[in-house]
Amino acid sequence: MELDEIRNSIDGLDRELLPLILKRMELSEKASETSLSPAEIKEREREMLRWAEERSGDMEPYIHRFYSALFELGRAYRECKKPVGAKVRAELNEALSKNCGEFPQTGTVAVQGVEGAYAQMAADRMFPRGNLMFFKSFEAVFDAVESGLCRFGVVPIENSSNGSVRANYELLNRKNLRIVRSERLFVSHELLAKPGVKLEDIREIRSHEQALGQCSEFIKSLGSRVKVQPCPNTAMAAELAARSEFGDIAAIASHSACELYGLVPIATRIQNSDNNYTRFICLSKDAEIYPGADRISLILALKHRPGALYEILAKLTALEINLIKLESCPIVGQDFQFMFFFEMQGSVRDPRVAAMLESLEQTCESFKFLGNYSEV
After folding, report:
1. Are residues 372 and 299 in the same domain?
2. Long-range contacts for 94-101 (Cβ within 8 Å, ≥24 apart)?
3. Does 277 lie in the same domain as 178?
4. Is the dihedral of CA 162, 163, 166, 168 positive or negative?
5. Fewer CB in 10 Å around end: N or C, the chain?
6. How much is the pLDDT for 82?
7. Residue 333 sits in the same domain as residue 356
8. Do 111 and 207 belong together in one domain?
9. What DSSP string runs through 317-342?
10. Judging by DSSP bridges, how do beta strands 108-112 and 131-135 pair with one another?
11. How far apart are CA 281 and CA 185, in angstroms?
């Protein structure tokens, strides 16, 4: 056959397929009104897959994928017709009913570390007139917001060159807080030491483990003579270097920390990448949805079986919801069980998104809505 003939034949088959697929979706929706249980529906799908696979020969893997996608599209279509689930509905209605208005410029804000920390810079950008309170650990920041001591909390969640801050993902899962804003902050690290100290004098470098990872190439270039000592925070590292009796201790921190603690930069822009950004999230005790919110974060635990994650991704694809981030984390105490952090574009005011949230609440082992917010 000539190419034009082949194309014409494909076009003809596609024209025959379209009304059949539309009819199947329509019948699938009507079938959902019956009293079949989810288990019975799943068994019918398995029977159909077996029937198709037995007749597909070498095409069996592809036909299996085709019918699985068809079933998932049918589910997505049915689910978008449903009202939002009770748990999700209650939380979203409460958040939307607050009519939050513009994101606040002020408030009591919990931050980990001391003055000069990158989290302090992010918090100042989010809250130009904010009242910052500093805490020793990330968990203390979460606790301060959860207890009502602080209205908001600002913590790092990921870095563009050194990955996620896993401790804060785990805290998001354990604590009952919501994300109301996120901010991307450009991070330029400097090696700071006391005045008069030279690079060749340095025998120990202190900083937060994330900063150490972001500057790993520079540290490696100094050779084995330099010891690396992790600290809870970059600004804390600068403060310790300033207080040290020895001149051979340096800190990796921001330029503002240099000015605050009387240190001088002996090397600048030492991060591995010039495109080095850290993403910070703003936490609140309750869900607050401000104008322009276009990101949704969730934590899901899926059933431990093949295809469980694929079904979630297929659902998002069917509803044309763009997935921005997907990260897995082991569930403590359960062998090979994982929870997943999802971040996607969308607004809870969109009926399709609301239907998707209901579906996830009903089908996942556990479901946690972290918030609908915007990123600056």
Report:
1. yes
2. 94/286, 94/287, 95/286, 95/287, 95/288, 95/289, 95/348, 95/372, 96/289, 96/348, 96/349, 98/288, 98/289, 100/288, 100/289, 100/290, 100/291, 101/290, 101/291
3. yes
4. positive
5. N
6. 54
7. yes
8. no
9. HHTTPPEEEEEEEEPTTSTT-EEEEE
10. parallel
11. 11
Given a contact cutoff of 8 angstroms between Cβ atoms, the answer to whether 249 and 193 are in contact is yes
* Residue 115 per-residue DSSP state: T
Q: Extract long-range pairs of 217-225: CB within 8 Å, 24+ residues apart.
A: 217/272, 218/191, 218/267, 218/270, 218/271, 218/272
pLDDT tens sequence across 281-328: 999 998 888 988 999 999 998 877 777 888 888 888 878 889 999 998
What pLDDT digit, counting tens, does each position of 122-144 carry? 999 999 999 999 999 999 999 99
Is residue 173 located within the same domain as residue 160?
Answer: yes
| Residues 44 and 174 grouped into a single domain | no
Number of domains in the chain: 4
Q: Choose among 185, 199, 193, 166: nearest CA to 252.
A: 193
Asked if the structure places residue 143 within a domain, the reply is yes
Q: Last residue of some domain: 288, 317, 337? A: 288
- Per-residue pLDDT, averaged over 175-200, amounts to 95
Per the CB < 8 A criterion, the answer to whether 110 and 153 are in contact is yes
Contact yes or no for 215/286 (Cβ under 8 A): no
Mean pLDDT over residues 247-252, rounded? 94
Closest CA to 159 of 327, 328, 252, 277: 277
CATH code for the domain of 168: 3.40.190.10
What is the residue range of 52's domain?
Answer: 32-79
pLDDT digit string, tens, across residues 53-102: 888 889 888 888 888 888 877 776 766 555 545 566 666 766 766 767 88
Same domain, residue pair 131 and 277 = yes
Q: Do the domain assignments include residue 5?
A: no
Kindly give the residue spans of alpha helices, DSSP state H, lying in the chain.
3-31, 38-54, 60-79, 86-97, 118-126, 138-146, 166-174, 209-214, 216-221, 234-243, 255-260, 308-318, 351-363
10 falls within a domain:
no
